[in-house]
Specification:
Elements (H helix, E strand, L loop, with lengths): L26 E5 L4 E5 L3 H4 L5 E5 L1 E3 L3 E6 L4 E9 L4 E8 L8 E4 L3 E9 L2 E6 L5 H8 L14 H6 L7 E4 L11 H10 L2 E7 L22 E5 L1 H12 L4 E4 L1 H10 L8 E5 L14 E5 L6 H10 L1 H13 L10 E5 L3
Parallel strand pairs: 1-17, 3-12, 3-14, 4-11, 14-16
Antiparallel strand pairs: 1-2, 5-6, 5-8, 6-7, 7-10, 8-9, 9-10, 12-13, 13-15, 16-17
Helix pairs in contact: 7-8
């Protein structure tokens, strides 16, 4: 397969720059095994069965973007990718000149940061002083909005670029399919009999990394941390035993579940995943996927094409463009039934 096979024309006006006025006020495109239907997100309640289990990603987005200054006076921008310990992180660092190992700079005019070395594209940094990295980010950091959102993070984003069920700190991008849910929808699903359970996958900045190779198989996938609790495994087994389906909310939930089933059967545990799902992949766990609309030529578009069928999904995307659905993180949603 070629990366060009996953390209499509997207007018810039369809890229959502702000969330809808209320959570859940978005549209929903249902991509069933035999049909494509326009709906509203509120219609999810009728599309999910009482025997199904809904799997949410409970990661919480860090205020991972920090601004500072080098000793020479040059500006520095730090994008924390991963917290390693109370005072150490891996991060992207933007500066006029690449910081050298052993150098220092200051963030927010208050915290000294030492450059310990490089690990691939990331810098290994130590935040000096008594405050933990978490404290520094919460006090001085900004939410790292995706590159296609053109405004700086505002108070609205602090609330709306987090899910209402976010609790496990560690992501640098939101699991955006979860942004549609308000507490009323979750309560209504539970009242219907739907089981709701959780996984954690800390979304990394690599989720926005473009595929730059011509052949899909040559792409190197980024690594992300995930946890699948035993309670989630038990809920999925119970749902399957009752004839229900596993509904993954977001590609991140799907990737966590499929990674945890890499041995052939779903098992609880934590680990790192570089799972790269493209057409031809045989899904082991997930039956239905709720997701947003993804970037052209992206690994996530490849994933949904693998899940729902390439021809059908690309046709659904063309339909979404024609009907002017809102795209990407603050955009509308799709509910996709697995093709096979």
């Amino acid at each position: 397969m070629r990366t060009d096979d996953f390209d499509f024309d997207l007018p810039e006006r369809l890229i959502a720059q702000h969330p809808p006025e209320q959570r859940g006020a978005s549209r929903l495109l249902f991509v069933g095994k035999g049909n494509i239907e326009d709906s509203a997100f509120a219609g999810l309640l009728q599309l999910i069965s009482e025997h199904d289990v809904l799997v949410l990603n409970d990661t919480r987005v860090l205020k991972a973007r920090l601004f500072g200054m080098k000793q020479t006076g040059g500006q520095v921008e730090v994008m924390v990718e991963r917290i390693l310990s109370e005072h150490e992180v891996l991060a992207q660092v933007r500066a006029s000149k690449t910081p050298k190992t052993g150098s220092r700079f200051q963030v927010a005019g208050a915290v000294q940061v030492a450059v310990l070395g490089r690990k691939g594209e990331f810098f290994h940094l130590r935040f000096e002083g008594d405050d933990s990295v978490d404290t520094v980010m919460e006090r001085y950091g900004k939410l790292p909005l995706p590159p296609y959102i053109t405004h700086a993070a505002e108070a609205e984003d602090d609330e709306r670029y987090q899910t209402v069920f976010a609790r496990e700190h560690g992501a640098v991008a939101a699991p955006t399919a979860g942004l549609h849910f308000d507490q009323a929808m979750l309560d209504a699903l539970r009242a219907k009999g739907v089981q709701i359970t959780y996984v954690t996958l800390h979304v990394g900045a690599g989720t926005f990394k473009p595929v730059r190779v011509e052949n899909v198989k040559d792409h190197t996938m980024h690594s992300e941390r995930y946890t699948v609790p035993q309670a989630t495994v038990d809920a999925i087994r119970q749902a399957k035993a009752n004839g229900g389906r596993v509904v993954a909310v977001g590609t991140t939930s799907l990737r966590a579940l499929e990674s945890a089933a890499s041995g052939g059967e779903l098992a609880a545990g934590s680990g790192e995943t570089r799972i790269f799902i493209t057409p031809g992949y045989r899904f082991k766990v997930v039956d239905v996927l709720l997701t947003n609309f993804h970037l052209p030529r992206s690994t996530l578009l490849m994933l949904v094409c693998a899940f729902g069928g390439m021809d059908k999904l690309l046709a659904a995307y063309r339909h979404a463009v024609e009907q002017e659905y809102r795209f990407f993180s603050y955009g509308d949603a799709m509910l996709i039934e697995r093709e096979q």
